[in-house]
């Protein structure tokens, strides 16, 4: 039987409706779970990992003050200024109890809530360096202000000089003029009975006071020489022309050879200063002009 074009048209329309109905049945069966909605999965995952309520303070504040970053103030036993460096050694000046308390007042009053973890620091700027000792540890504390004056940095390092903590924050947390003034008072102090002293040339009767900076250099070079090589007592006829007293220790020194003795409550030891160390000690002691020409 041959269909007319009208019949063909009607059959085509019916066929189209049948296909449409089948497609609608497949959509409603719920079998689409085999192809999940990626956006829905991501949204759900993020909502589980991140709290709904997050404040800027809870994610950015590392510490509030030096007590949280380093140690409690009451646990600080000794505080030293780092005044120079020689090789891997720091040359330090010990603070008295009063000096230590004044410096700790400034350090522990700083608000560190604006500080964050820091990357490499640019060279330059000003710095105050300290060594802090407690009963449990010894660390170096360095506080920098960059050349722009906009940022301050804190670096804490262990005895091996490896950084333990490095953070960066806005300028103004530490009062650098005040810290510098306190450090200068320590270095120039000539009245500390333990860590300042005198230098004299007995033959001429000349004597002068040595401040704590000068004594810090002298102690470093004398004690380093004794650790590196202890020497025998001098023979007959040997004499010393310079005497340096620091606290309870008395150093007798030959200004031409660097040979010296150290006497304290434990007895007398002998050593010899290297040529460059001898020059520094005589310069800091300010006795060169009173010595006889060799």
From TrEMBL:
Return the protein name.
Lipoprotein
Q: Which organism is it from?
A: Alitiscatomonas aceti
The major lineage groups are: Bacteria, Bacillati, Bacillota, Clostridia, Lachnospirales
């Amino acid at each position: 039987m041959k269909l007319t074009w009208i019949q063909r048209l009607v059959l085509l329309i019916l066929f189209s409706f049948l296909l449409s109905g089948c497609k609608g049945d497949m959509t409603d069966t719920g079998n689409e779970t085999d192809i999940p909605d990626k956006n829905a999965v991501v949204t759900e995952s993020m909502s589980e990992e991140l709290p709904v309520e997050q404040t800027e303070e809870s994610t950015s504040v590392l510490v509030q003050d030096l007590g949280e970053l380093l140690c409690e103030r009451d646990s600080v036993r000794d505080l030293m200024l780092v005044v120079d460096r020689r090789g891997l050694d720091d040359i330090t000046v010990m603070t008295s109890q009063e000096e230590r308390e004044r410096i700790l007042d400034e350090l522990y009053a700083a608000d560190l809530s604006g500080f964050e973890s820091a990357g490499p620091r640019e060279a330059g700027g000003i710095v105050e360096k300290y060594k802090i000792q407690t009963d449990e540890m010894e660390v170096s504390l360095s506080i920098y202000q960059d050349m722009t004056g906009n940022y301050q940095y804190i670096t804490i390092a262990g005895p091996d000089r490896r950084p333990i903590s490095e953070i960066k924050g806005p300028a103004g947390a530490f009062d650098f003029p005040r810290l510098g003034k306190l450090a200068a008072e320590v270095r120039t102090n000539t009245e500390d009975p333990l860590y300042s002293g005198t230098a004299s040339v007995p033959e001429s009767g000349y004597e002068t006071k040595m401040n704590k900076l000068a004594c810090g250099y002298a102690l470093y070079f004398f004690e380093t020489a004794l650790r590196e090589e202890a020497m025998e007592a001098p023979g007959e006829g040997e004499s010393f022309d310079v005497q340096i007293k620091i606290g309870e220790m008395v150093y007798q020194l030959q200004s031409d050879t660097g040979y010296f003795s150290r006497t304290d409550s434990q007895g007398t030891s002998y050593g010899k200063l290297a040529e460059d160390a001898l020059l520094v000690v005589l310069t800091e002691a300010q006795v060169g002009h009173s010595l006889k020409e060799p």
